[in-house]
Specification:
Number of helices: 6
Number of strands: 5
Distance between the termini: 15 Å
Shape: globular
Largest sheet: 5 strands, parallel
Length: 123
């Protein structure tokens, strides 16, 4: 998958959320294919933003992995594995369910600060 940086730049100009703008810029500076793909997903229009339910994360991820969601994590379903989930935002019930499954919640900014070994992008 090729990521065109100029397309990310054009989409970035339309974003008004300062946290999102700063995050996309810092992801783009990482120069790693995974983070460039993540920046591309975050730069998409709001109507195409990713919203992932817990049942999908539970189905796709293995225990102990770090799952990255370029959007919002919603609470439909449940978790039966211990996971680290990094996302732009979480619903309140999703946070409660993740903590109940002894999982860990990370903001995407924290993911850049603490490098992880295995990352899985869920869209």
């Amino acid at each position: 998958m090729t990521v065109i940086k100029t397309r990310i730049e054009k989409r970035l100009q339309k974003k008004v959320n300062p946290r999102l703008r700063k995050l996309i810029i810092s992801l783009k500076k990482q120069q790693k294919p995974f983070f460039l793909a993540l920046a591309k997903e975050l730069a998409k229009p709001r109507r195409k933003a990713a919203a992932v339910n817990l049942f999908k994360i539970n189905k796709v991820a293995n225990a102990g992995e770090t799952v990255v969601v370029p959007g919002k994590v919603l609470s439909v379903g449940s978790l039966d594995k211990r996971l680290k989930i990094a996302a732009f935002s979480f619903s309140q019930k999703a946070e409660e369910k993740i903590k109940a499954a002894s999982g860990e919640i990370l903001q995407l900014e924290e993911l850049l600060q603490k490098p992880q070994k295995s990352l899985r992008l869920v869209i």
